[in-house]
Amino acid sequence: MKKFSVVFALVLSVSLLTGCNKSNDSSSSDGEKTLTVWYWGEQEAPGYKAYMEEMVKRYEEKNKDVKVEAVLQESDNLYSAFRTAEAAGEGPDIQYMWGGTQAMEDVWKGNVAPLSDYISEEELSVIPKASLAETNWNGKQWGIPAYGFTYGIAYDKTAMEKAGVDPENPFTTWDEFMDCCKKLKDAGITPLGMGLKDGYLPAWIGIFLGQQNLDSVNDMINLMSGEEDFTDQKYSEWLDKIVELKDAGYINDDILSLDLYQGQQLIESGKAAMTLHTQAYAVSLEKSMGADKIGFAKAPVYGTGKLAASVATPSQVYVIPKSAVHKEEAADFLLFLQEEDNIKCLYEMANVMMPNLNFKEEWVTSEIDKNVLQWQKEDTNFCYQLYFAPMFESDGLIPTVQKMFSEDLPAAKAAKELGDALDKCIEQNPEVHEAFLDWSVEE
Amino acid sequence: MKKRKVKNISPYVYILPTFIILLLVIVVPIIYVIVQSFYTTIADENVFVGLRNYKLAVKDELLWIAIKNNLKLFLCVPILTVISLAIASVLYNKIRGWRFYRSVIFIPYILAIPVVGIVFSYLLQYNGVFNSILRAAGLENMALDWLGDPKLAFPSVAVVIIWKQIGFGVVLFLARMMSIDRSLYESADVDGATWFQKFMHITIPQTKTIIEFYVIITLIEMLSWVFNFIYVMTAGGPGNKTLVLEYLIYKKSFGGGDFNIAMAISVILLILASILIAVHQVVMRKED
Amino acid sequence: MKRKRGRGITSQVLMISLVIVIIFPLYFMTVNSFKTHEEYVNNMIGIPKAFTMQNYIDAFQGKPFGQWFLNSLILTAAAAFFTGIVALLAGYAFAKMKFRGRELLFGMIVPLMSVPPVAMIIPQFRIIKIMGLVNTRISVILIYVGIMLPMTIYLMRNFMKTVPDSLLDAAKIDGCNSKKALLFVMVPLSVPALITSSLVNIVWVWNELLISLVFLQKESLRTLMVGITLFKGRFTLNIPVIMAGLVIATVPIVIIYIFAQKYLVEGMLAGSVKE
């Protein structure tokens, strides 16, 4: 028996050892460097994976001694894989992150290396200041845009026509929007299609409606730091608007059993006339269904703040993790992505625009994108979600908005719950919270 | 003398691989979790904070919602056990087609949870298949939002779990029943025992060990292995109505915020699980 | 006699309704995978009028189902196999050998089976890094074995306890040492426990999502479960294509089940000790 156990132990240890060798092999073998990239994006910008593969190919051709290994992440493990690996000092060389606080949180936790240590200010100057500011903190640049996109309302032009609404200019103010919804409903069409089950939607609604009473980013900071009260009409009026839409029956009846994407797809299957969308996806619909079928509009304005007519064009970002082995090469690859040919390739393959001064308007053929470029020039760029306090979304916004639909929670009570959730988030993350304040006031 | 010595060491050799693996994979991680639950990380540095994480965790109503839901899930265990036993004893009588029934009933158990979750999402959606059947049958008021209604979401998830897990119990119990000595039943028949008496006095005692195993494994499933169902079907919603401890730990660990609080919640879950096991051990010992 | 037949009919009615409840979701999945999306919208539960294979072509597009399936199979088989062997050894020691600290050690193992895997991912990753096993199948297999061991040992030990000592003593009189007693007496007798626990283990590993997602950061190592979650996201609004993807993921395991069923059932029965 002893022999048996010994043999077994041997087999086990040998197999462990061989595993050892394997992993050593892949990380460094005679001078060739392997650059690991963990990315996301295919889910919101179809074609992004193909674009990334093309970039890897081009980069490897240019740099014979570097091999790039790009691994597409699932939505749910984009952060879990990174934070686990980083906790063990075994992260990738380049990590994709969602913009704003969702990227800065890891900076504050010490998981990210300052990008500006590896990329000069001059090299960064091709990127618009506003985009850089989203991940600038403590005098350093931490992230570089992966791509930007604009939020808007995608709508079915045929349905609008059927309901007697001008399909080229359906609404600009809240009253016009409600009127449009009413006409659609009277014509037997569900005005808005949305899905709340997986919880991504509440932040989207916030981007469309929540930021309209704000005057500047400082209002948002005051709110998120607990200095202002959520129950103040200025901050909670958008919750009334949700209730207004719900009570009028302008939202699909199965909102609670659909995911975000399933809700958005209701306009493709003709079950709803409008949905909250990104320009990237709307353009892909425009391409597949035709420009005479799909339109894209700005959020209807009800607010009185300076940001009432603002448009959200956030960017997703790449960062270099603190534990990255090849930081110089990572920076080089990230700059490579900003080259003119490559941002053109990004636009052609994934329908998303790089916030980069070298982006040429003449590349744009889509009607929707032409409009969006116009908005970007005329309107302030502000995105509500970028300034959420850590955990505010998961512990406050998502369950509260779900309850507004599932339990008919009144707007006033919802505002109170959001305020309480915010207090809890501040209490649970005091250090991160201070860093958060630091960051936002700078602008 | 020499032989005796070998005999004394050999049991330890038998359990050595187990201990090495458990040490690496479970014990050391648990110690790490316990230690970390007293710390917090500030800018990459570990700072001792005493019971702060526990205080914050206990103060958070989400913890209590999750514990309550896990306890509610425990209700599935007696339901599963009774139904599986009943089905197994029907099949045990070798009714016509029993082999076919056994095969079919077992199928859900081997299906992947994401597959089950996705299919049931389409069936149970407000405008899904189940409701369209009800509406077609003129039962408009029975067509409810199975996964979206705060009162129904949790029972719906529980029903799907039962649907998936029932086959395992049936096959397990049936296999055990088949090995019961037939003569026990025959002598009971001679005494004129009813079906129910035979079930209570022969079937149950004879299958006791396996029932116990099934109850334990199902309890553990409901406490620690239920993540995938929640993850695929409801993501904890609507409004945290289907939040369970595992999902809460996942959200706190990776969803942003201070993951040391997640460690504190993990320790609380560990304590709960240990209490469960301890109660079980005491009950078992009493019966012996 | 008449009464018995009456009960037979109720049993049949019960069983048939149960079968319908169980089959319906599978029927729904399969039947819709052959419809066009337009037909699905109007006819969710009927048989397809125009039978199409296009959904399967679309579902396969750009997705290495074969690779995913193979990866899942390797992890599942290896983890279940090693768990079985290690647990057999430990179960035997705990059930049939006398040594100091036996009850204490066993008592320490049992509670470990309720530790939720999600709580340990971060420290486990650190250990795997120290061992130099990051991004290898072995790392994941090792973790799976560790998570499944306590439950398997528990079942094994309780089962082996029911084997009468007389059988082992007889073997010893015939000149078997403890190794041979284990191999030739205990192992054959333990087949039902082994099969039962392996079944639980296989199903658990097959379904495991979180650990494989975090630990296997290479496209070539991704498992089937990770692949299926693709169908949960934005992949397509075309429900028949989603259903086709789910069918592709399900068919191999059902085929294996059909072939293994006989052994499974016989195995659970084989050698059970008549008391």
TrEMBL record, chain A:
Keywords: Cell membrane, Lipoprotein, Membrane, Palmitate, Signal. The keyword NAD does not apply. It comes from the Bacteria. Residues 1-19 form the signal peptide. The keyword Nucleotide-binding does not apply. InterPro entries: Bact_solute-bd_prot1, SBP. It holds the Pfam family SBP_bac_1. This is Extracellular solute-binding protein. It comes from Faecalicatena faecalis. The lineage of its organism: Bacteria, Bacillati, Bacillota, Clostridia, Lachnospirales.
UniProtKB/TrEMBL annotation, chain B:
It comes from the Bacteria. Residues 67-280 form the ABC transmembrane type-1 domain. The keyword Cell membrane applies. Signal peptide: none annotated. InterPro entries: MetI-like, UgpAE/MalFG_permease. Its main location: membrane. It holds the Pfam family BPD_transp_1. Keywords: Cell membrane, Membrane, Transmembrane, Transmembrane helix, Transport. It is a multi-pass membrane protein. It is found in: Cell membrane. Belongs to the binding-protein-dependent transport system permease family. This is Sugar ABC transporter permease. It comes from Faecalicatena faecalis.
UniProtKB/TrEMBL annotation, chain C:
The keyword Transport applies. Residues 69-260 form the ABC transmembrane type-1 domain. The chain crosses the membrane at residues 12-30, 68-92, 104-126, 138-160, 181-206, 239-260. InterPro entries: MetI-like. The keyword Cytoplasm does not apply. It is a multi-pass membrane protein. It is found in: Cell membrane. Keywords: Cell membrane, Membrane, Transmembrane, Transmembrane helix, Transport. PROSITE patterns: ABC_TM1. Belongs to the binding-protein-dependent transport system permease family. This is Carbohydrate ABC transporter permease. It comes from Faecalicatena faecalis.
